[in-house]
Write a structure and sequence with these properties.
Blueprint: H1 2-6, H2 8-35, H3 41-68, H4 72-91
Amino acid sequence: MKKIMQNRLFILSFVADMVSNFGDVLYYLALMNYVLILPDTKLALSMITLSETLPILVGLFIGMWADKTRNKLDTIVGTLVIRILFYSRLVR
């Protein structure tokens, strides 16, 4: 344990992950508060929940497929486009 705590790269990665997780929680809470002012709250809430949960549920299968592709950047951009499409539905 002492060796791990002395590893600068590990500490930096761990702190960066904690900051990222905290930011994700704040983002999700802000998005939930935004949904409350929309006219169709139930639909917006379900779309946000779906767009946040779907990548986790299908991540294993998409990950296996993504590892087999040549251009991994296209795969990442493609998944971001899907999330943007879900969020753009909220703006209407």
